[in-house]
């Protein structure tokens, strides 16, 4: 292993830097760069992820942290490595759980604390997902027909980090610095001069692979292997789909390329040996019967 620091898009790396009790300051600093002034966090308490990651595919492609602030706000922080069908639906679905758990027995006036879902995405939105496809931060709230916020206590913040392209010399805000760390931490050999803040000095110390115990190193290597395998599967499928589409030149050709890419993705997921036919069908958009045929082949 040649990297000096961990990759934050791995399960181990994400949980190590943001999900441990001793590293709460990292998570607080990162979240406060995304939150409005009236919801800035002073302290956090981690809560159990009773509903997150309900399937093997979720647990391997999406890593999450649930927490609440001292003033009552709820936060779901998800790192999603791969695009899944209906991932927006999934975000909305899981946001309902911290809303429901606020229900009180007896007389209750239905007053709710704010709920934030922060999605850290290692992919970009498709063109049909709406305006701002090149934006890094996508801030979503419930609005009326006049584009006025109807309800300000449910907020979705998606970060499409592949769109963040600033170099070290271009970093200005604390948010810029956090985005840069997410994208480049595993590529660095030392702490950049533009990151003198105490929170980053702490982060780089915790992220140093040389400081890991043998069992931590083994866990990280396993997590890193899965990240690379999944990323390779996705990149290959996308490239093959594009190439096939170019060869055919028509909409029919694009469909053939897409179907071939889906099948190649399914074959690679089958090879991982950890997912069921139903989970692979959900991830690729193929019929479950097609996945069964591919598995037999």
Descriptive overview:
With 297 residues, this protein is α/β, with parallel strands linked by helices. It folds into two domains: 11-211, no CATH class; 214-296, no CATH class. It is 44% helix and 15% strand. It has helices spanning 11-18, 24-32, 56-61, 87-100, 174-184, 198-207, 214-248, 251-272, 277-284, 288-296; strands at 44-47, 62-69, 74-80, 115-121, 137-143, 149-160. The protein has a six-stranded mixed beta sheet, sandwiched between helices. Helix 7 (214-248) packs antiparallel against helix 8 and helix 9 (277-284) crosses helix 10. It is globular and about 60 Å long. The two termini are 35 Å apart. Mean pLDDT is 84; it is low at 249-256. This is Transposase. It comes from Oceanospirillum multiglobuliferum. InterPro entries: RpnA.
Structural class: alpha/beta
Terminal CA distance: 35 Å
Unreliable segments of 5+ consecutive residues: 249-256
Query: How many β strands by DSSP?
Result: 6
Helix content: 40-55%
Strand-residue fraction?
A: 15-25%
Q: Work out the oligomeric state of the chains in this entry.
A: single chain
Round the Cα radius of gyration to an integer and report it.
Answer: 21 Å
Total number of domains: 2
**Count of helix runs:** 10
The spatial strand order of the largest sheet comes to 1-2-3-4-6-5
Mean pLDDT: 84
Largest sheet: 6 strands, mixed
Give the SSE order as H and E letters: HHEHEEHEEEHHHHHH
Give the overall form. globular
């Amino acid at each position: 292993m040649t990297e000096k620091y961990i990759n934050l898009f791995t399960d181990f790396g994400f949980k190590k830097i943001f999900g441990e009790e001793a590293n709460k300051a990292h998570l607080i600093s990162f979240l406060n760069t995304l939150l409005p002034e009236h919801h800035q966090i002073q302290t956090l308490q981690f809560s159990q992820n009773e509903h997150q990651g309900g399937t093997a595919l979720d647990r391997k492609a999406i890593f999450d942290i649930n927490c609440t602030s001292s003033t009552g706000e709820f936060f779901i922080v998800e790192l999603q490595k791969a695009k899944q069908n209906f991932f927006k639906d999934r975000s909305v679905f899981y946001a309902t759980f911290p809303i429901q758990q606020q229900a009180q027995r007896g007389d209750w006036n239905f007053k709710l604390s704010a709920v934030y879902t922060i999605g850290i995405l290692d992919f970009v939105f498709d063109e049909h997902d709406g305006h701002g496809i090149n934006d890094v931060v996508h801030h979503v709230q419930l609005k009326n027909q006049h584009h006025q916020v109807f309800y300000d206590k449910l907020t979705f913040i998606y970060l499409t980090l592949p769109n963040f392209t600033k170099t070290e010399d271009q970093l200005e805000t604390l948010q810029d610095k956090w985005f840069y760390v997410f994208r480049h931490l595993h590529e660095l050999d030392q702490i950049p001069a533009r990151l003198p803040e105490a929170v980053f000095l702490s982060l780089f110390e915790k992220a140093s692979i040389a400081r890991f115990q043998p069992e931590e190193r083994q866990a990280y290597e396993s997590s890193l292997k899965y990240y690379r395998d999944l990323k390779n599967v996705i990149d290959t499928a996308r490239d093959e789909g594009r190439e096939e589409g170019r060869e055919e030149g028509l909409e029919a050709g694009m469909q053939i390329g897409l179907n071939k890419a889906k099948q190649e993705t399914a074959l690679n997921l089958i090879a991982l040996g950890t997912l069921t036919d139903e989970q692979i069908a959900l991830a690729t958009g193929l019929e479950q019967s097609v996945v069964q045929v591919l598995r037999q082949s």
